[in-house]
Batch of 4 targets.
Target 1
Amino acid sequence: AQKVTQAQTEISVVEKEDVTLDCVYETRDTTYYLFWYKQPPSGELVFLIRRNSFDEQNEISGRYSWNFQKSTSSFNFTITASQVVDSAVYFCALTPNSGAGSYQLTFGKGTKLSVIP
Amino acid sequence: GAVVSQHPSWVICKSGTSVKIECRSLDFQATTMFWYRQFPKQSLMLMATSNEGSKATYEQGVEKDKFLINHASLTLSTLTVTSAHPEDSSFYICSARGRRTSGTSYNEQFFGPGTRLTVL
């Protein structure tokens, strides 16, 4: 069974602060994908990143960065210099990339980020 | 990236009626489609997975006779909520994965914008 835990239910930061959203996962699969999605108030899921379990390199995309640590089963997401437009619910998700259930996403409960101007 | 559309974006219906939600892949062939339900302030819960031309596989606790899924073509899947009741009010999201017209596969799911169902 797979499980994704986002322990932070809600976070509030003041604009321009950095913020890290935590994600811890559990899986018995040896190969898997990890994802982060953003869900603004409109409801549409916005894809942010996909990480293959083979690839533990951290990634930076503009103000976004991701820290994947297989040893601790964590895939944390940091937004630097946060902006009001970053206010949304962020979901971490996991899927095996082979076998039964492959591509079926297991989502965490989400972290609601509020960026205060 | 690939585009998935959903129609309608919102619907209000009376209790006891049936509602059909369409999910279309616009520029790729969706060999697998997924239907999720999201209650307010909660996460997405997978309801069912359907492969084109096959019967859908429902997750535990999801009534297949109430949530009818049809995936008859490589670009269209429909979810019909039969005899809807107020407790079925939710945000329904579909996603799809499949292959480009060139034949190469997409490894990720692409999500539709969601349909907000309100049952009075």
Target 2
Amino acid sequence: DGGITQSPKYLFRKEGQNVTLSCEQNLNHDAMYWYRQDPGQGLRLIYYSQIVNDFQKGDIAEGYSVSREKKESFPLTVTSAQKNPTAFYLCASSTRDRRSSGANVLTFGAGSRLTVL
Amino acid sequence: EDKVVQSPLSLVVHEGDTVTLNCSYEVTNFRSLLWYKQEKKAPTFLFMLTSSGIEKKSGRLSSILDKKELFSILNITATQTGDSAVYLCAAPRMNRDDKIIFGKGTRLHILP
């Protein structure tokens, strides 16, 4: 079955440590996204990538980094520079083919909950 | 600045009631509006609306778009406890970056 896999589901880290969240998709989607969700805040865009080897900052990119070396993979690193990293992180992907009825309809992974102690 | 605004932010009703969730938008090169339901983890897709005045329906859920007034509503009739979730509204910005703008969501709680 096609879908998006995020790992780990739960992660605990000490303050000052970098952590990397994995996101893999087998939907053949060009575009991939990382969102952060805090209670009462909705989804806030961290980074997104429309094509391999290219990515753009979203609204809250500070303290985060990404790479897009393969179409299927879009890992997110939460660095020690991120002031308040404890949150629920969602990865998503979509087709960019505007001829498709599914263009820009996001498919989400199950999320990764990061807690910094 | 592009934005999507949902209201109310929170709603508590009794099972069997009908609810209406609102979403207004101001998005560059608007093309479509999307509704998602989020229970515990990943949001799941409900509707995509592209044309004004055409209702989309799925069981007890329905949604409609008004491109003149720049808003959409999501209706849920005969609510059940399983409808308790956060409902998210989103609109892709159809320019070079195709950024998708989300609202803050409406948290709906259905009392048995």
Target 3
Amino acid sequence: DAKTTQPTSMDCAEGRAANLPCNHSTISGNEYVYWYRQIHSQGPQYIIHGLKNNETNEMASLIITEDRKSSTLILPHATLRDTAVYYCIHTYSGGYQKVTFGTGTKLQVIP
Amino acid sequence: GAVVSQHPSWVICKSGTSVKIECRSLDFQATTMFWYRQFPKQSLMLMATSNEGSKATYEQGVEKDKFLINHASLTLSTLTVTSAHPEDSSFYICSATIWEGEPEQYFGPGTRLTVT
């Protein structure tokens, strides 16, 4: 199984940047890093993914270390609606992308 | 982004009965869909990989005769929980992969099953 390590929980003030770390020291060379989030009682929502380079989209930025053993998801201006459990995974881009979820980080955005 | 729907969104059934959950990819074709189960305050656990036109692949510890999966078309996969028991009460989530250069996996909204 693809294992990742994330802090169990984090708090972030509304309007501030939320930086969520993830360790994925067992990642293979052709595996991507994906981030999803799950708001209570909903299905997971795709956020962003990357291979080597840093990535940015309308939701977040992804910073991947040069050795690819860890990454950080950045929500630049957290809002109350960003309160959710954030999951970091690594999986192959080929095939059918079987995904194993870890325990994730519970992010609480505080007013 | 791509949309995956599930039906029903919640269901209550009596112990010993069977219940079917549908997972549909609304605007794309999915040769492979996945089924997950999530108990309260726990992470998603992969149950099985559903392949269109062939048998599903079940994860270790998941009873294939209890959780019947059918993937009859490129837009529909069904999960039938047979002879349901209260311990089967859970949040069931499906997902489908879309290929847009690189694969992205989209998840359904989930189905809350309560067995009484």
Target 4
Amino acid sequence: KAGVTQTPRYLIKTRGQQVTLSCSPISGHRSVSWYQQTPGQGLQFLFEYFSETQRNKGNFPGRFSGRQFSNSRSEMNVSTLELGDSALYLCASSPRKTTDTQYFGPGTRLTVL
Amino acid sequence: AQSVAQPEDQVNVAEGNPLTVKCTYSVSGNPYLFWYVQYPNRGLQFLLKYITGDNLVKGSYGFEAEFNKSQTSFHLKKPSALVSDSALYFCALDRDSSYKLIFGSGTRLLVRP
């Protein structure tokens, strides 16, 4: 099976712009989660989607949003970018349950100038 | 509130020696514990998980971890370290119906030849 894919892999934006990141889960996986990784804050949970419904959300401002499509692909959007949004954004997929293993994609490296 | 602690920022071992990467957790309810490894410019790779049952969990690449409920620990171990094991290791915690992973701060493992 193909793994989790994320596009684009690298992105450079300027402050105030918005960005959309895409994630395609492993075939058959219906849960998609997003995480932000930074040197200062480590790995932090953004949100999780299952069957197009957000089941949980982390402590991020409303500028961070996401959605999931009927084919389980997911996108996350960050509006009004700030310098502090520079990070590696990781997407993970799993079949369904909490106890299922989450498998991670390679990430999208976002740099905000 | 649930949390994960990795008390060591870095662990140094010689190749061929046993290694231990420490993890402690705090959670109300049943803990589901995971270990992931991250190589430079890569996403997270799953190593092993504890859900229930045997306290000694065996995983990929010769790694194992021991779940200790009384000490609320889930240390990662390997009998004989390889230089190629050098990477960043993350312990993560989940629980019933949370649908999110809480990560520790990560431990950098350096195996010297």
